[in-house]
Structure formats: C-alpha cells, structure tokens
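The following block was generated as part of the benchmark described in Methods. Ligand: flavin-adenine dinucleotide.
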Amino acid sequence: MVSVGHAVEAATLSDPKVLVVGAGPAGATLALELARRGLGVEILERKRFPRDKACGDCLNPGAVAELDRLGIADRLRTTLRPNRLRGWRVEAPDGRSFEASFSSTDVSLAAVEEGWAVRRRDFDAALLNAAVDAGVGVRFDMRVFDLLRSGERVVGVVARQGTRSLQIEGSLVVGADGLNSVVRRRLALAARLPRLRKIALVAHLACADGGEHFGELRVRRGRSCGFAPLPGGANVTLVIAEREARRVAGDPRRFFEEALASFPELRARVRSSALEDTVLVTGPFDRPVKRAWAAGALLVGDAAGYYDPFTGQGIYQALRSARLAAEAVVAALADPTSEGLAFRRYDRALRREFAPKRGLQRAIEAAISRPRLMSRLVAALARGEAAAARRLLRATGDIEHPASLLDPLFMGRLLVGMVGR
Ligand SMILES: Cc1cc2nc3c(=O)[nH]c(=O)nc-3n(C[C@H](O)[C@H](O)[C@H](O)COP(=O)(O)OP(=O)(O)OC[C@H]3O[C@@H](n4cnc5c(N)ncnc54)[C@H](O)[C@@H]3O)c2cc1C
C-alpha cells in the first residue's frame, strides 16, 4: 500500500524502473549508465536546462578520466571546447605562492592528466544530452518534495510541477539532488548539521582570458577566492564565513564586489571586465551522511555526502559515485533479494574511496583557516622541489591516492621546509 500525506494525482510515466531525482553530473551519469544497460530510467529535475549551478566550473583530471571511461570525453570536448586546465597557482595570506601542474612530467600533458574549465551551465546540459541520446527520459520543472513508501520501503516520489502534485512510482529511487538533497532529508540520512560554516558566492565575467591554463586560488583574511579562465569568460568564486551572510542577503552582487577588496589584483581584473548580473550564493557545505542507502533508495553525488569546495573534487565524486551506484542498481534489479547486500557494498565502496579524500580536504581546511600555517606551507611548497607541490595537486586532482602524501620522505621534506625559514 503506497502512502503519502498530500492530495496528489497519480502520474504514469513510461513504465519507469528507476527514478533519478536531479539532472546534475551524478544523476545524468547514473541514468546514462543504466540506460546503456537497457534499464528504464527517468530523471526528475526541478529546473529547466541549461541552468547555472554555483561551482568553480573546473573538472579535475580525475573527472575528465571518468568521462573518458564513459566514452563521452571526446564528444564533450568537441561540443564544449573547454579550456584545458594544467594545474593551479595557490597564493597564501602573506602573498607567497606556488604553481604546480597535474602532470607527472613537466613536458607532456597526457589526456588523462588534464583538467577542464567549462561553465557548468554548458557542461551539465551536454552531459544530460548524452544521457538522453542513450534513452533516458527527463522531466523538467519537477520539484520532488516527498517520497512514496510501502511500509519501510521507498516506492516512488511526490513531485510538484507548477501547481500540480504528482505521485510517481518507481522500482528504485535515486537521490542525485545535490547539497540540500530532499531525498536525503526525507530518509533522515544526514549524519549531523554542517560544522564548516562557510558560504560561497559565484560570479561570471565576460573577458578574453580564455587561453590560460592555470586556475588561481588565493586565501586572505579568512576568505578564499578562486579564479578559473573559461571559454569566453572567467569564473570567480569567493568563499566566506557564514557569519558574513547577513550582509550578502541584501545584495549579493554588491557584497561580492566589496569583498573583492581583500583580493586587489582580482578586483582590478573584475573591474576591467563585464561582471554578469547574477551572483549565485550557496552553502553551508560539510554534509556527511549516516549511510547512502535505504530500502528502495540510494544517494549519489553531493547528496551522498559533501565536505568543502576548496579542492574542486565534487564533480569527480559525482561521476565516480554514479558509476559505483550503477553497479549496485543493476545488481538490485537483477535479483531484488540481494538489494540490501548490493546497497551495503555500494556504501562501503563510497567510504573506502572518499574517506581518505575527505581526510586530505580536512587537513587542507585546517591549513587555510590558519594564516601563518598556510603561509609556511605555501612557502615550503614554493621553494621545495616542484615534485612536492605536484604530488599534492595530483592527490586533489583525483589522479593519485591521498596516501601517496603520507610517504615519510615527502612529509619530512615538507616539514623541514615549513620550519626552515
Ligand atoms: C562554490 C562551489 C564551488 C565548487 N567548485 C567545484 C569545482 O570547481 N570543481 C568540482 O569538481 N566541484 C566543485 N564543486 C562541487 C560540485 O559543484 C558538486 O560536487 C557537483 O555539482 C555535484 O553534482 P551532483 O550531481 O551531485 O549535484 P548538483 O550538481 O547540485 O545537481 C543536483 C541537481 O538536482 C536538482 N534538484 C535539487 N533538488 C531537487 C528536487 N527537490 N527535485 C528535483 N530536482 C532537484 C538541481 O536542480 C540540480 O540540477 C563546487 C561546489 C561549490 C558549492
């Protein structure tokens, strides 16, 4: 017996097997993988595409490698013409900086070791198109706000489209609905409230910076700022303490322009370019989950747990978790009695892969929130062998396992560098 406490009408979609809530990278990728295996899959998305998404607009090399594995990297490269991202320049509060590339050698940039800088509006739409071409159905303007249950089991969703509420049944429901996931909330799977009280403001510039190959990250006065050259423009992402949010609420664009005073060299660049009217605001981050599944439901991407945007690993996580989730969904649909086992395996695989990455992100957050520590670290990386900074970038670029940073020789050199001057 399906139960829901709202007056709704039943909707019959084209015999959906799997309902995916959210058409971002996680939802689109999972749907694509399932459709390729011949499964019926329908995405329910609250917005119309193309739509903007608050993001630094950078895919790290791990994310690009995932697209390669999916067999769509070349197609997306051709349609989107993303800027190739060689690496990052990081500047500490005292102005010292280091620049490092993702590549394991200085001379060549292997396809698998490039990042992409491309606007999310364009990337997400192109990825969704690939899913649609594989047979995925998409319903836009569908805001899911509740789950249908039969006893303990999730058997569908309740969505609002305009003024209508619809009950939509499915064999499985996947929450790919991002940072503020409704599916996660309805399943009570959030582990706790966010502790990292930061928010982000994302702005786009129209400028001719297109050809650059390094992103820039600056940390100053408790704020961090990222600059990514995009095709035909640039992304400027400002992350500030949530306590400053009250001042943002009135006029995000004005607040954004004022806050750039902490980054004079960027402010000059913004002034000389056309800043788009809309400044996107999002946060707080830090959304751990108790587990990423329930009977009849899975979580993927940000919905399955997110920490902090500083290292730019969220799109990789979305794509990789979607691949892992696809295996679990296929196993559960092939033999429903094995669903619990398949979902627990998925949950373990997520933790195995992402807990070490989260550990590294926490260590980096600890450094950037302490100006003197950050300055010493950056100075050590700047004057050390290029290999040290590169190793850090290859870990945050999801090319190498974070454990590679625990190499005693690497740590020793870094610590000596930090106390050295
Ligand atoms: C400021 C900032 C900067 C970042 N920079 C980077 C970066 O440079 N590189 C990187 O790799 N990662 C970055 N990230 C992280 C990255 O944006 C996310 O990890 C990634 O978008 C997660 O993809 P997703 O598909 O899980 O969720 P999303 O991309 O958020 O997609 C979720 C989709 O679900 C839809 N949706 C939400 N609720 C509902 C609902 N109730 N019903 C129906 N549909 C719904 C939304 O409209 C959206 O389309 C950044 C994040 C932030 C906040």
